[in-house]
Amino acid sequence: MSKLEIETGVVVAENLDSVEAPVTWRTYAMCVFASFGGIFFGYDSGYIGGVQGMDFFIHMISGPDAKELLSWQSSLIVSILSAGTFCGALMAGDLADFFGRRFTIILGSAVFIVGVILQTASAGLALLVAGRAVAGLGVGFVSAIIILYMSEIAPKKVRGAIVSGYQFCITIGLLLAACVSYGTENLENSGSYRIPIGLQMLWALILGVGLMFLPESPRYFIKKGKVEEARKALGRVRGQDPNSHHIEAELSEIRANHEYEKRMTPETGYIGSWLLCFSGSVGLASSNVRKTLLGISLQMMQQWTGVNFVFYYSTIFLKGTGAVSNPFLMSLIFTLVNVLSTPLSFWLVERFGRRSMLLWGAIGMTICEFIVAVIGVTVGFNHTHMEGELTIANNISAVNAQIAFIAIYIFFFATTWGPGAWVLIGEIFPLSIRSRGVALSTASNWFWNFIIGYITPYLVGTEHANMQSSVFFLWGSLCALCIVYAYFLVPETKGLTLEQVDQMLDEVSPRKSAAWKPTTTFAGREEKQTTA
Ligand code: BGC
């Protein structure tokens, strides 16, 4: 320790790289385990499509002669989950600040299990819907706070890759759900829906019990003013002696940043602390309101890429073309491409950074979506009327080309916007509003997820707008907006500590952010202040 450090009690990192303690394999193991929460997210949004098509389930809900669920029933069953997750995500921010990140995730798992028990026990609509609402709350807690927790404990060099691991788990969850529903759909008893629904308890148990053994986020303890607990937690997270110089230096940096933020923000009550998320000028990239809007809009744009059109409706869409013999299998291919491509993002996100990833991803998706739409109009096939062999042959090759480009589109999504949006929302908020910022952004994901899920049948349904594959003009245009959005508004956060991200947003615009390098540490600034 320098003489100055002894006098001020602040340990200053020797250089800008040592603002983070070295890590051991345990750190990685902890983060990888936390990413397991993504399985919930994916499985829960994925299983319902399959269950809704099961004969036993349809008869139970809509009567013995029904061939499909009534629209309002289907809409209620699907959307109640998003409503629950939306509310859960919003509440989760407060809980995470009050009781801790870890506790909120464990609580989310417990709430989710209650919801799943209700659904599994249900033999009619009412209990099923109630169960989905409760489970939704739990998924909301977990989906928002896992991101927060992972971003706060992950080492900066691999933070992007680690949070992308969460996206990978979402994709695995979607795949598992599709496979399990496929496996049980022909059962002619309640096992057809009870098995896929009940199985989810396993994910919650693994996550909830596992987290009991993981440490709390040290940044949460700092926010609570519990420095000694923060030191111990950081020691565990980094696999180092809590009294070592490395831990002391990292802790000082987190503390100094928090002190700095506290000085910049007025003391407020509960409502005031929510309003803090919207404080400052919209014109200033470093203001809280800009960061909050950035988080909310990032998740909105992620949903606007149209990805869930593919996951929720591709089976129906492909069925409508009349040119695909097994639409279910085809949509399973999209789910597989999603799973297999996502790991590439672990490398991309740290090699090229978040900004380039989102920019190139949006360009790739736009091109693919326009190609799908253009094939649809130029070949001119009509989903409902196919006349003559030539037309059918044209249709088959056109539909095959469309399927190929949809698969390439999914590849672009899975390697860029899928993980990228989650990575960024964990990084852009200062500690004072981080939990709420992440919660608001996650709630936005669920909100748009719901809106898109809700309106899509109206866009493509033959009795409504009947857009057929021209709906890809819409998704393509929205993806084109994503290009502009990424170029002007997305900052580069690669390789920085969360505290350095704060500093960077203070100093440069998103367009110049990739070239920004930290020159001072927060602990260094605090030290100067104290000795001045
Ligand atoms: C999105 C989900 C989507 C999934 C597909 C996630 O990042 O938020 O809405 O279904 O990716 O992999």
Automatic annotation (TrEMBL):
It is found in: Membrane. It is a multi-pass membrane protein. One of its GO terms (molecular function) is carbohydrate:proton symporter activity. Pfam families: Sugar_tr (PF00083). CDD domains: MFS_HXT. PROSITE patterns: MFS, SUGAR_TRANSPORT_1, SUGAR_TRANSPORT_2. Residues 30-494 form the Major facilitator superfamily (MFS) profile domain. Keywords: Membrane, Transmembrane, Transmembrane helix, Transport. Its main location: membrane. InterPro entries: MFS_dom, MFS_sugar_transport-like, MFS_Sugar_Transporters, MFS_trans_sf, Sugar/inositol_transpt, Sugar_transporter_CS. GO terms for cellular component: membrane. The chain crosses the membrane at residues 28-49, 69-91, 103-121, 127-149, 161-183, 195-214, 293-316, 328-349, 358-381, 401-425, 437-460, 472-490. Belongs to the major facilitator superfamily. Sugar transporter (TC 2.A.1.1) family. PANTHER family: MSTA PROTEIN-RELATED, PLASTIDIC GLUCOSE TRANSPORTER 4. This is General substrate transporter. It comes from Linnemannia elongata AG-77.
